[in-house]
Amino acid sequence: MIRAISSFWARHQRKISPYLFVAPFFILFAVFLVYPVIYSFILSFYDARGLGARTFAGLENYRELLIDPRFRKAVVNTTYYAAGSVFFLSPLALLLALALNTAWLKLKGLFRVAFFIPVITSEVVVAVMFTLVFEQDYGLLNALLRSIGLDPIPWLRSPAWAMPSIILLGVWIWAGLNALYFLAGLQNIDQEYYEAAAIDGANSLQLFRYITVPLLKPVILFVVIQAIVGSYQLFTQPWILTSGGPQDATLTVTMYLYLQAFRFFNLGYASAIGYALVVIILTLSLIQLIGFGTFRREDA
Amino acid sequence: MLVERSVARPRASSAIKTRKLLTSAGRLVVWLALLAGVFMTAIPYIYMVSATFKPNTEIFAFPITLWPRNVTTFNYAQLFSEFPFARWFGNSVFVASVRTLLSVFLSALAGFGFAKYKFRGQHVLLVILLATVMLPFQILLVPLFIEMVAFRWLNTYWAVIVPFAANAFHIFLMRQYMLSIPDELLDAARIDGCSEFRIFATIALPIMKPGLAVISILAFVQSWNDFLWPLIVLSDINMFTANLGVATMIGPYRIQYGTIMAGSFLSTLPIIIFFLLMQRQFIAGLTAGAIKL
Lengths: 300, 293
What we know:
- The structure holds two protein chains of two kinds.
- By secondary structure, chain A is mainly alpha-helical.
- Chain A has helices at 2-43, 60-67, 69-100, 108-120, 123-134, 140-147, 159-187, 191-199, 204-215, 217-231, 236-241, 253-262, 267-291; strands at residues 46-48, 54-56.
- Helices cover 74% and strands 2% of the residues of chain A.
- Chain A has a two-stranded antiparallel sheet with strand order 1-2.
- The longest helix of chain A is centred in the N-terminal third of the chain and has 42 residues, at 2-43.
- Chain B folds into two domains: 2-43; 75-292, MetI-like (MetI-like fold).
- The longest helix of chain B is centred in the first third of the chain and has 51 residues, at 2-52.
- The interface between A and B is large, with 95 and 95 residues.
């Protein structure tokens, strides 16, 4: 019997072993990802409070989402943050990459390391550090403003300034990583294009507009989609700096999901918030892909 | 001819001079902007470290000081006496190490399977993986929490080690690395009677060391800095990771800023040292996504 098995194994091991290689991963993947994703979808159609009994509620949770003012506020806030990432952070990162890509620049290694450190620092620690930066009376930023004769700004204490502060913090964290993405893209562009265009008399603005930007398109697309996906997951910084306040000015979608699920134990409703997030992220990513012409023939 | 040249030359050279001046002025601006950027990146860290040596009354006082006037180690003493910080730190080391090992092992194994074999269902599995990469992990929080309750894993190491160990992104990276292993090498081993698993363990893994290092770093940092998931599944103060511990110190003890800063500083220090030692692998790992496009 054992011999029969071992000879079967010897003959077929090349066919069977790939399944054995991928099996451990996919078992965990099924238990901790695929099943929960489906379970969460089902749960979003139930009125589930706590871990006990649940009743089928159809589309009730989603209907509730559409009229829930706090959810709307969270979506608006998070979209505000995402817009900051796309229209402020990403161009800034591109500028940074262009600066880092110049041939004459010395100490490139130092700059790269310096701008990269915030990315690997835990967001909790970053937020803790920035309590002392944004502090209204004794914080670093306001000390700077006062020293140049400007009025201090109530960074985290005013509803108008709270989200811009979080966006600034986002820039501080992510500019370096996004610049590295752009830098990798810039270095993939063949220098010959620039030389040829320079011979034709193109100035540096034209070089940027007609060579750099079109050839950088895939990386720009990547950075923008990353920025959107990442932005809609915002949680830690506002959680620690403002707890979502003042007056829900920094309440984010993820924070609202967390509160509904683990403060109010509205598990069905929280699942619906999760799926609303999926819809938002997929829609925005799809718009980006179409806008960048990814599905057009010539690019295929 | 000669006269013409001697007239033309000074003009041209003055034009070149102005252009040179402009370029060097431009360079100076870029250089200063970059230095300002480095300064702005560094200053919060420096200020944090300095705050750890200040008494609380100096953190909130005018004028603000970068170098503490009254250097004290009170905050560090407080951190270890009032909070189980050593335990938190140990938890972080243990959880991040085990999760990294598990994660790297799983993805290396599966990456090898995908890169070096053709099998039925391969394509479907890859598509499923790719589809999940775009999903925000927030949709997992509620169902995974229910799962943890059912497994009785709340407040255990299992809850922070196992659920996020299987990472689709790691598989894609690993598969990419494994594709570069020449098939002839594997076939030669097969002719020598090597079993498929031994081929993986003794031939593929050693070749893959650089790739393994990159993924280990990614997995370790991710686990070390994890916040939202530990916040959900850990409520026993002795089970906290350093990161979660620091975050909870902010709540009820908001007054002890110096102590919170000391905890933050100590919990980041290993990652920063680790990064300074292995910059290249760090940067390779975190930019891998963009280069693949």
